[in-house]
Amino acid sequence: MSHKVEEVARKIAGMEIRGAGKIARSAARALRDFALSYRGNSARDFLSRLERAGEILKSARPTAVSLPNAVNYVLLAARGRSDVEEIRSAVIEAAERFIASSKIALKKIGEIGARRIKDGDIVLTHCNSQAALSVITTAFRQGKQIEVIATESRPRYQGHITARQLAEQGIPVTLIVDSAVRTFMKQVDKVVVGADSIAANGAVINKIGTSQIALAAHEARVVFMVAAETYKFHPGTVIGALVEIEERPAGEVAPPEEFPGVKIRNPAFDVTPAEYIDLIITEKGVIPPQAAIMVLKEEFGLTLGE
Ligand code: RI2
């Protein structure tokens, strides 16, 4: 298999490439580059190598459905074709279409979501989500005086990235430890987070700690919003599949050798049930979480379950 495909898969697994949207775009790009570099002349061989590349990419991380959704989108364009050049251009075209539309989706989510942010709002966010940040930065650029509270997001501290990105844009931002969320919730007006997967029942799978934040928001009657592109909706959940929660290496939490006899657990994501979510902001509009099934029907229609 191509070096490059394996390298992208390795970078995704090691979180050098991270964030559900970025993972999806880099997988599409890897398939495009693989198609560009293929030198054989058998369509059958080309297709089977593409499928293999897709499997390698999909298996890099299990939770963000954006990854298999992107891979399947690109491969679907190639399947059933019997000419090498036709396959090549179909893959390139589909990959580029996916990448471009995913960037447009981020911008749209910003525009649609910003309507839900008011002048003077204090917005809390968790981890580092391009979709959530698009909402926040768009509201700020519209002239709304907002402040952001960013959680550090242990164990990988993606909250540091968020805090820096916001500060660079001149947005007032406060960094807090994850366990301070309930303390600060009293002064928060809105919570905006991203998503790695959204299930048919409206449950949102996002960075570990998200469901605790949702609980604290619920208790304090603070609006809890999720910003997610439609390719983060999980087609498998329509037919009962459960979203696999990635468990990452213990060493990310604490050095195991310094804790003999101690079991260290490191689930990277958790599930926030629909009843704790007020709305989901997609590029197609705002929906209540209970309408997730409608998005899935529209997005995946006939390819459901593939
Ligand atoms: P965008 C990230 O996962 C976070 O959980 C974040 O909320 C989600 O992906 C969506 O990010 P990780 O890769 O696609 O940091 O909105 O484990 O950027």
Instruction: Give the termini distance in whole angstroms.
Output: 23 Å
Could you name the ranges where pLDDT drops below 50 across 5 or more consecutive residues? none
One letter per element, helices H and strands E, the order comes to: HHHHHEHEHEHEEEHEEEEH
Integer average pLDDT: 97
Question: What fraction strand?
Answer: 5-15%
Compute the number of strand runs: 10
CATH superfamily of the largest domain: Translation initiation factor eif-2b, domain 2
Care to describe what's here?
With 306 residues, the chain is of the alpha/beta class. It has two domains: 3-104, Four Helix Bundle (Hemerythrin (Met), subunit A), CATH 1.20.120; 115-303, Rossmann fold. The chain contains ten helices and ten strands. The protein has a seven-stranded mixed β-sheet with strand order 3-2-1-4-7-9-10, sandwiched between helices. Strands 5-6-8 form a three-stranded antiparallel β-sheet, with helices on one face. α1 runs antiparallel to α2. It is globular and about 65 Å long. Residues 18-21, 127, 129-131, 158, 193-196, 206-207, 268 line the site of 1,5-di-O-phosphono-alpha-D-ribofuranose.
Q: How would the blueprint of this fold be written?
A:
Layout: H1 3-13, H2 20-37, H3 43-58, H4 66-78, H5 84-114, E1 122-125, H6 130-141, E2 147-151, H7 158-168, E3 173-176, H8 181-185, E4 190-193, E5 197-198, E6 204-207, H9 210-219, E7 223-227, E8 269-272, E9 279-282, E10 285-287, H10 292-300
Parallel strand pairs: 1-2, 1-4, 2-3, 4-7, 7-9
Antiparallel strand pairs: 5-6, 6-8, 9-10
The structure holds 1,5-di-O-phosphono-alpha-D-ribofuranose.
1,5-di-O-phosphono-alpha-D-ribofuranose binds at residues 18-21, 127, 129-131, 158, 193-196, 206-207, 268.
